[in-house]
Amino acid sequence: MSGVLTLTPTASPFPWAAAAIATYTGKATLNFDNTAKGVTLEIDGSKVTAEDEIVQALAKAGGLSDDSAKTAAYFALAKTLPTVTAFPEITAALDSLDDHLAYRTFLVGHDITAADWIVWGALKGSVKIVGLLKNNKHPHLLRWYSHLESLESTQQVIAGLAEAKSAKARSNKTAASFALGLQNAKEGEVVTRFPPEPSGYLHIGHAKAAMLNQYFAKMYKGKMIIRFDDTNPTKERTEFEETILEDLALLDIHGDKITHTSDYFDQLYEYALQMIKTGKAYADDTLQEQMRKERWDGIASKHRDDSVEDNLKHFAEMTSGSEEGIKWCLRAKISVDNPNKALRDPVIYRTNLLPHHRTGSKWKVYPTYDFACPIVDSIEGVTHALRTNEYRDRNPQYHWMIEALGLRPVNIWDFSRLNFIYTLLSKRKLHWFVDTGLVRGWDDPRFPTVRGIRRRGLTVEALRQFMLAQGPSQAIVSLEWDSLWTLNKKVIDPIAPRFWALNKANLVPVTVKGGPEKPEVKSVPKHKKTPEVGEKKTVYSSQILVEQEDALSFEDNEEVTLMDWGNAIVRSKTVNEAGVVTGIEMELHLDGDFRKTKKKITWLAQPTNEHPLVEATLLDHDYLITKKKLEENDDVKDFVTPVTEFREDALADANVRELKKGDIIQFERKGYYIYDGTVDGRMEFIHIPDGRAASIASKAAPQTGVATPAEGGKKDVAAAVEDGQQRGQLTSSETPVDTKMYKMPKVYGEGEVPTPVETKMYNMKNIYDV
């Protein structure tokens, strides 16, 4: 007999007893469902919804001995404990349990029973009670509690809950974005493909295409092909294929099949010959600039009506890579003057004498993407080709290729290309940043590459939710980063452990009167709202450190809260001639109410040999460019942000030594960070934006909204302002921007506006008056 226990990870309090006994007995599997209401056990054809009844049912099914008369009393206690708020009543209950367990291993008998699990669950579900247990005032109860929690079955519950919280189900809004689905789609038959060119690293724009392809393949229980579009030997290298697969793995994207366009070079060549023989393609040696002009003006090429024999002869020359052959290309014979210029006889084959990274020197001619893509899509069984709408003008060309060759048709599904403000997606421009050393590589956290944004702390779940929320939108806009980072915060906040770090600049030593004579170590939760994240060791001492900024804000005899400790009163403060605080004396006031203090302060015990602190570097980053959107004619060199990385030396609590590279944490009162590794003995943490304006605003862009060229660019800010004043743009209090809006007279006229009422307020001089 085995059942299913359905429960929501967001339940408060969480039904710990039911979940723990389910895994302990092995009589029910856990099903975390964000839409579930309450907790439900389905077992042996019956449904149970009350937690105490679920515990009893699973205990019976698991054969746990439970015939004591005291069991009912423990179930009653478990029911009342969550409702008790008065401290004396809670303490009395804990005292009673501690006394009972002084000479007993379990509550009833010599083995774990339902009574143990129902009481343990009640304690586990109360943050207040768990906190009291950690004070070591109830050693027997704590020993029993810790034993049940340490069981492998209980740890499975804790890990499962943490995973369920981090992988929240997508909102109805996200799902609704795709309510229409794909046209002509049949469950089990849909095949999508993601066709990257192996010539660089994937960026956030590619991530949208890859995620949508995988989403629809899974939605229709179909397949997704990862196909490398390797038709240009000039750009492509084998190592880029490897990095692209690594990037996809970082996004949790795995294809059902990996192919290459080069797998089909023989077939593509035969199809090109077929098009020549049927009069649907011709060879052309028109120079590139002239061809571009003729296509634009709707002028036919001089070779458009050449014979099939001549076209085959020239294509053969191309295939051999001869001196004559490299002058020619092959063009599809579609239209000379179609209003859609993509249909004006596009090139479908070119010569290239460089060896191919997979086929070597076998070929001297290679198909263009516009020719190869529709053909290979049809051959490979792709049912739906997802393309950004920048290709929309080429969609008729895609269909024409398939029809001209009599191949199986493929559905096209358009979506908008992803663009972000202050962000470059151009491979050429990103290459420039790498080549000039302005960034450290393609995984630099300032880069929009997949490995760059993942290194900066963006989670796959947040990225997936964001991409799917865009839905089938056709709008081509530059998006703000705030909504993406806000989503990311919602994913990481419930599971990011909390630690402390202090800015090393002018750290202030503090003597705490009433503190322990010798340093004491206590366990506290890493996350107060999510105890299952685990615990950390906090050192309490009468000699602590606080940040200079906090120390400067303290007033004499002000009561402040030392986080995770209690209130303290500032009794004295020593300040040097430069105004720097050099020492403070505080007096503990643990009876004080933390709700009445204005300042909650992070602190660290002064380091000793036994309790050292960790040298850390906190990194923050700015956008690489100072203009929201670079235009076609803009030179990226003129808009480089002068400083884009900011480093802060810090001391962190010793708990961070347990972290692994890539772990996401929160330094309380500082923000979210991702551990990036150790450099020269210092642990480095990269700041993760949280979506708030201050964390994502460009630190270099001027307030006027006008792009500022970087040092060495056309002009600096002061020069720009001076120019504006000389042009009459900055007079009096006018807004210092260029504007195409027409001028409007002032509502109150040009004269001074008198105050229309009597007032006792003093007059202030206009800040714009010279």
Automatic annotation (TrEMBL):
One of its GO terms (cellular component) is methionyl glutamyl tRNA synthetase complex. It is an enzyme of class 6 (ligase). Gene3D superfamilies: 1.20.1050.130, Glutamyl-trna Synthetase, Domain 2, Glutamyl-tRNA Synthetase, Domain 3, HUPs, Ribosomal Protein L25, Chain P. It catalyses: tRNA(Glu) + L-glutamate + ATP = L-glutamyl-tRNA(Glu) + AMP + diphosphate. It is found in: Cytoplasm. Residues 50-176 form the GST C-terminal domain. This is glutamate--tRNA ligase. It comes from Trametes coccinea (strain BRFM310) (Pycnoporus coccineus). The lineage of its organism: Eukaryota, Fungi, Dikarya, Basidiomycota, Agaricomycotina.
